Hints:
By secondary structure, this protein is α/β, with parallel strands linked by helices. The strands form three sheets. Strands 3, 4, 5, 6, 7, 10, 11, 12 and 14 form a nine-stranded mixed sheet that branches. Strands 9-8-13 form a three-stranded antiparallel sheet, with no helix packed on it. A two-stranded antiparallel sheet has the order 1-2. Helix 1 packs across helix 3 and helix 1 crosses helix 4. The longest helix has 25 residues. 30% of the residues are buried.
Amino acid sequence: MDMLAAMRIYIRVVDCGTLSGAARELNVGQPAISERLARLEEHLGIQLLTRTARSLSCTEAGKKFYELSINTIESVDAGLHAIKSLDTSPSGTLCIAVPICFDDYIMSSALLKIRSIFPDVRVELRFYDGQSESMSDDVDLMIRVGPTKNERLMAFNVGTIHGLLFCSKEYLEKNNGIQQISDLEKHPFINQPGFSSGEKLSLVNDQGDKAQVMINEVMAINHWGAIFQMIKEGQGVGLLPNVMSLSASAEKTLVRIFPGYRTEKSVPVFIMLQERLKNSLKIRNALTAIKDAILGCNS
């Protein structure tokens, strides 16, 4: 039996709390996970998990094996990393998990910097919803939107995401411009529920001056790409995140309105990694490149 592989699967099952969740994380079928766990328990001669129809929990032996598995995997990975780090010219693959809301320009800037420093490194980007608390073993860095409670991963705060106001150039021309913030209530509003209620929008500028306005919410969408498209189609005024602002500004049909203001509500952005990788030259430079790119759009 490949005990290290079995330990990795067991850790993921316990972390996810369900077999189906672990199967999704590992991108394998649930029956395969069940079979590997059964073989592991048979090999050890002990029951590790107590299963019910909807959940599972560790037995006392399972808790001890979980701790042993984490320590073993971290020790092995740290040893392998130490050997790899002897190479002063990093190569191999750098895998980064990126939220789908992130601007092409941000990641392009980061990738160009990484490639200029380490031309022999192959970079792989994996886009996801940005909310995951867990990170698969083959991912080196994960950009997460929002607070994290995962104590097994190191988390570096690299900025915030807040909403900026945009509309299409055609919409602005048809409505003879939008002169004051209070005018927003007269226009259909495409809202991102995480940044305002369905009735009021709270804004703040760089000087700390605040403004609150009633909005006429005609759409509430929790996907930035769809909001982008609705604004582009002239459906009204809407919010786009600062991490998409470069693409929005490059889109000649879109106009940012009240550029001195942003939503008062914001969410933190973290870059997460496993502690064993914290001293990797490749990881440190990638982290800095991504951080600089994100900070560059925090306006």
